[in-house]
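Problem 12. The chain below contains 247 residues. Write out its predicted structure in token notation.
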Amino acid sequence: RQFEELAKFYGYDTKKKLISPLSYMSVKNKYLNIYQSVPLSYVQIDGLIDYLLLTNNSDELILLGQDKEDDLISYAKKKLSLQIMNRRCQVFTFDKSQLSDRDLLKSKLKSDKNIMIIPSNDRSFVSRLLPTLGSMEDTVFAIYGLNTWNRFDNLDYYDLVNLNVHLPSIFMNDNSQFYSDFIYNYYIKYFSFPDKYAYSAYQQCLYFLSNEFKGLLDFKIFPNTSFQSNTKFNIFRYDDFEQIIVK
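Solution.
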């Protein structure tokens, strides 16, 4: 909402660049100079599906979401249908009230292994779903969610690990020399370590202020939008209480 207010004043001034650094929600009006650093949910879905299809050639995929986020479900379904045969993907939608029905949920899943894409930004839906899946201890899961899950502080860490949760993010350590240099120079200057958003802010500043660092991010106009959305991000998974970036 704060960014929308800013855009009302400067959104049509092409001499300025307005950068939305934190929000996954897109601006509503068709402004000319907007850059969104957190990839749109649709862009995240594209990346997750591309990664899944590269790493899972034969396993059946499950697309699971809630009724009120049908736009994300429909987009993911269309993306999958363009690349794989329908028999390799099952689609299930639930209402929040159904998530406590463990038997209903389990009846839709396979008993041995489930690779699931859950395109939801709803904290309540996700925080109800994961514990139910986590209680199915005899079943192996690999779950692919969205960047917003990183902000849900009510998710149980054991569920994130045991369900093999994968999430997109631009706000994390990437273990590169570039990152190590940033940490070193930050500590030398401020005698403390940066918080979780500082590295992303550093990358964004370098991208917009110097042509030398244009490879750090990748902004493109997504269909049916007028602003530039970043399409470059990491996918990480939880493993033994660490966040591991996948290749």
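Discussion. The chain has eight helices and eleven strands. Students who got a different answer should revisit the alignment rule from Section 12.3.
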